[in-house]
Amino acid sequence: MKYIIDNFSNKLYHVDILSKFIKDNPIDESFGRAVYYKRIVGHNDWYFSTYFDTATKYSNMKKIADGLKFNLELVD
Q1: Does 73 reside within a domain?
Q2: φ and ψ of 29, to 5 deg
Q3: Burial of residue 4, with CB atoms counted within 10 A of its CB: 0-12 exposed, 13-18 middle, 19 or more buried
Q4: What are phi and psi of 49, to 5 degrees?
Q5: Tens-digit pLDDT profile for residues 29-63
Q6: d(CA 17, CA 72)
Q7: How many domains does the chain have?
Q8: Distances from the Cα of 67 to the Cαs of 4, 6, 36, 63, 76, in angstroms?
Q9: Which residues span the domain enclosing 54?
């Protein structure tokens, strides 16, 4: 997510998939329970949730990569 923020911050408001996962407010209501459990991470004044399990994080990263039209290879 930090890579996305660093390299695509000019698109965060304009690409639906990015605006779904990355917010400019650390207590945005769309983060849901992640706010309560303090699972929001900030980077360069943008925020995203780390509340998901690993499989969901991978799925979200794949959705973001597809939305930005670049190849993503996940390695363990």
Answers
A1: no
A2: -60, -25
A3: buried
A4: -90, 140
A5: 999 999 999 999 999 999 999 999 989 989 999 99
A6: 15
A7: 1
A8: 12, 16, 29, 6, 23
A9: 2-68
